[in-house]
Fold these 3 entries.
Entry 1:
Amino acid sequence: MISYGYHRYPGRLFIVEGTDGSGKSTQLSLLYQWLKSEGYSVFFSEWNSSPLVKDTTKRAKKRRLFTPTSFSLLHATDFADRTERDIIPPLKAGAIVLADRYIYTAFARDVARGCDRAWVREVYKFAVKPTAAFFFRAPLDVAVDRIASARPQLKFYEAGMDMDWSQDEEESFKIFQGKILNEYDHMVNEFGLTVIDGTQPIRTQQRQMREIVSRYLKEKLKEKAVLAK
Amino acid sequence: MSEMKFYGTALPGIEIGTYPGKLIVIEGTDGVGRSTHVTLLRTWLESTGYAVLDTGMTRSVLAGRGIKDARSGHTLGRLTMQLYYATDFADRLENQILPALRAGFIVLTDRYIYSAVARAVVRGADPNWIRSIYGIALVPDVVFYLRVRSAEDLAGRVLGSGRGFDYWESGMDLGLGNDYYDSFVAYQKLLLKEFDRMSGEYDFQVIDASKSVKRVAIVLRRSIAPLLESEPVTAMAPAPKETLKLQSGTTEPNVSLGVGKSSGEKTKVA
């Protein structure tokens, strides 16, 4: 098993992280459009997207079957399937892979739910280390407001209602997001995350992101992609 | 009472203390007769007045069905498979095994983490990685390893049972042989080696599974009896004998009941 930091592939892996409502998905889709228009072959990989695990996750959420440990392990299963199917093969082929949420989401969320920090990191040791990882940081109240206005109702696990922090959904969500944000802040140095200030205008954030991404792109990747077509 | 011990990092949010039940593991490769012995032990223990929960791989409410579906499609990647099994294990540990042990049940488990570790390592997983994941596992009161001498013996047993070779039990995903037989033998050889390696590490009680079912059953009972007798409630003692009237109206003759052991404990858990 090749572990974190030791994978060597010709492709590039860029990932975005951040609390709900930090604007990371918007930024990633803008980056995707740009890379495509520049002629690269780009693959997109989302959190919770494995067809093998999807039904189990859906059912477990609906019937509230999760404990913090099984929540963590089932998401790791989903991520393993994504890694084996959507991430490693395109990277081997020299493509660019963009991932909306990566292992750091699990580290933040599972530890906020009480899982052991070292244990969760060990579980995900098989993950490919990203070429660059962007952490879109938005203050807690901004993130909470964005989510509250975008969604009519919070989901049970999303709001951390399984943890009995508060009977009030919005209150519980705030507590949960606060813990998550705290974990992200710890990971900035641990994993060398690139922090992008999520309160800046969208275009400014995108400019910063493209500048960093372009440092890792070689003309070679592009030619290969063009020839492949 | 047994002290709760974990192999590594304990489950989050768990209260570590003692439990009145017993965790008994029956391990071994495919076809050694594990499930036969679990059934025999269950009958024996229940007739002696112990409440028994039996469990095994892919029997979790959470992930059992998902694993079975994925297996039948032969679409499981190696890492994905290891983690899916770990999810299944965690769910059973937290929702079946621990509650039953706390309630004083004897938990009989057909395989535990050792099969999962062996399968993962044989498939190229980092041995330390898979062991850390299963660090959440409770250290059992006893682990019986039903051992056969060779993979060829196993093949004979599997054929003798009339079920034939299964895709995953034959390790067909590993491409070790040209047909099911060759692959089965090569795969089970690797597994046997891993089990032998784990034997000391995890303190297996090795039982020669090439003996007759009856012999093996006797050895198992003899090894389990002292575990139960050390309990303050000595249900294994020959006297006093009472006839236990079950709620369903059926009468079980000569059920030994220890002092203070109520018939209410004889509840079965599905």
Entry 2:
Amino acid sequence: MQPSILIIDDDQDILEALRIILEGESYKVRVALDGQQGLKAIEEEKPDLIILDLLLPGKDGVSVCGSLKTRPEYRNIPVIVLTALTKKMGDKIFTQREEKVLREVDGYLDKPVNPQELLIKVRELLEREKDEKTRG
Amino acid sequence: MRRPEVSKLEEMLGEQFGVEILNSMGLATVVLDREFNITWANNEYKKLQREPGEIIGKKCYEVSFNSKVPCSEKVCAVRRTLKTNCSSKGLKIIKKDGEEKFLDVFSFPLFSPQGKLEYVVEVIQDNTQLYKLVELSDRLTAYASHELKTPLATIHQLATVLRGIDLPKEKRNDLYDRIISRSQHGLKTVENFLIYSKIKAGELEITPIKINFYSQVIKEVLDFHTDYALEKGVEFECEIPQDLEVICDPDYIQVVYNNLITNAIKHGGEKVFIYLGYSEKNHDYHVFNVANTGKFISEEDREKIFQRYVSGRERGSGIGLDVSRELVKKHGGKIWVEPCYFLGKRCFWQEEKVKLKIKENELTQGNNFVFTISKKLKAK
């Protein structure tokens, strides 16, 4: 069975672009437009990997990450944070709490995403997860 | 070596005109002794410090900052002059009656005939306006860059996919449409910033002409938003008479509508419904409204949202409503927002809801942006 990926981003155009990239590699893709919807989608069907935007309406990416990491059943789902907000752009200073949460994510990619970089990162994380599961 | 008559002349100039020149230049000037006591001050200085009473003998830091101790050498030009016997300059930020003032300060040593530094002359230029303009311009630049980064990043993302992945024609066309739509919205953001800079420079002029309001404003606006609205699942209802004639600047009123509709799409949640209406009841003004479904804007925020850079975090420049307010003002009108209700596609105001005795839980919340255009505008 193909791994399933959940993308949480409020920009429908970005969602569509990422969906095309990932579906091109036969991943099963689901999308959510905000943090709340994202968490609901995770509860409905646990994804193998999550691609998460940081700036989301309502419950933002940091809160979603925080919620996942406190729940044992979801703690190990690999998360790639995807955002146009990068520290190097000086757009946002993360609080200590946010920094702590963000240190626990598995990868960062800047928007716009290079499709090859995205696919490499996705493959790498899914394989790592598979290995860990095999090792039990 | 200086000729003696030149030194004499300089002395006379200093004695006779020094104070007058300083006063006529409108620069606040104060003379301090080595202990920071004010020994002389001109009227500009008293005005700047908002001190109606006697200030001679008071400490300068007491008058400027209401402080009991002198400022640090790092920030105080006077202290640096006292230390180095040389002139110095710095920036002083004081707060008077809740208002911040940005002051450029120049300090000069005043020596006794024996060559001992006895006083420091502090000349102050109030550059508050200038600093605020620079700050505003910096903020605007940062904001504009940020706002353009999002659509550009998305356009880049879509273009990358189009170039790198072989897609069926239908899918390709969908991505092209998305690129067109995002770039059009990016252009609207730029348009807002250009208008905003004109407003700031006091150069915004409108050209009112008599138009058919529906075909020259509403149709254009609806055409522009159709694709994006469809993508977002937005529905429109327009009850503006098709034969309505209005004297206004159609280009700028389109900007007002574009900003209100973009705002409605952004904040209307899922399945936004937007109602465009007109009331002819007012004798002096054309009254237009753009109402949309969405949570009530709190009373506190109803004024705030028309202020610069107050915005939610979704797509949009955050200055759109501010620009709209200025454009409406130029049309002799006003803009405001009030809560409203929807029952299906029917839009209700508070009074109507009470009259019809409809329970609140049967209705959907909404916000109604109302703007007016003076009927007294003359066509150019």
Entry 3:
Amino acid sequence: MKTPYLYFGQKGFLATAGVANGVYLALTQADHGMEPINKANNVLRQSLRVLHKGGDQVDDVRGALYTNDFVTGALFNVDGDSDINQDDKFVGQVTELSAQAKSYTITGNDEKLRILTVSDTAGITATTNDIMYFEQLSHTAEILPINTVTSDICFPATSFIAAEPLAYTDGGGLYHDGTALDATRLIFKSVNKAGAAVDTVDLVHTGGKFKEVCEAMQVLCNADVFDVAIKVHHLTAQGQVLHNAFSSRGIDVKRCLITRA
Amino acid sequence: MKDTNMMLFNSNATISNNLTFTMRNAKTIWGFESTGANTTTLNVKGTNNHIDAPDVFVLTTVNGTDEVDRVNRIAGIDAMVAKANVVNKKGFVVAFSEIENVKPGGIASIALTLDT
């Protein structure tokens, strides 16, 4: 019997509250879909985008090297108010910290980002109302795993069991640009315990699209593609590849978390 | 209508046991996953019919950069997917054979481990 095969590759993403000292929780494959390796402060790491979004107004907390809002492109200090300076953060402003090599380090193989404070021109001093966004953008050995179990997985479509929505509240359930996010779990018979357990692929995706995710899976499971695996989602060195069955339904995928039995 | 596909795997130039030559029903494929820079596993239901562990074919592809490795591993998966979806009622499909030099998708070698 012919059956399509569905291929998924992992993609890491986390939205988390700001921390004043800049030391964040360890990123893990199990929870966030990524484990970034050590990074020195003279290395620009384009595979991991680090964004800061202001949750409240605080003066004198943004390093001088950051001048423009990542989303709007607007200068931070141009709004006609002489009391507002480039280094003051306001609600909703998004700063691309990873644009500066020095902005953060990871040391000791602990997968914890250590973001400099405003004491450095590439730093920012966050408050707990702020949100930090850590997002993997490409497939590279800078962010593990790249070739071990849970880095990717491929199922026969006949192993697809169900899709179910997951609660998603990280970052207030919002992406850095303000769009809503939701999560959906895709459940398959396990590739290594097929009769005894399930493997799951958890997608954090555009909000309000659970039905569309189900539609996309229905289409892919009934596709007449038998000579290659259908690449549902994965990262390459150049960036993200998302199947048209998803993107054509307005679904963006921010995190793809593979959990194996 | 039955259209069961049987896949033949021959991993060694000398056929000496069930690790070097085996035929599997394509319906018993549980899936694929990367396990190393140039290795991917093809997991199939074990010949012991256990439900909690597979027989595992390790598909070895050519090493290169991280990106080349990724592309090669996927090419190996694609090749096996194509083989699994051949419908040939008059005979099995040769998925991989050292003896016949059938090595699709850039797969250089295979190695089978049986569940026990």
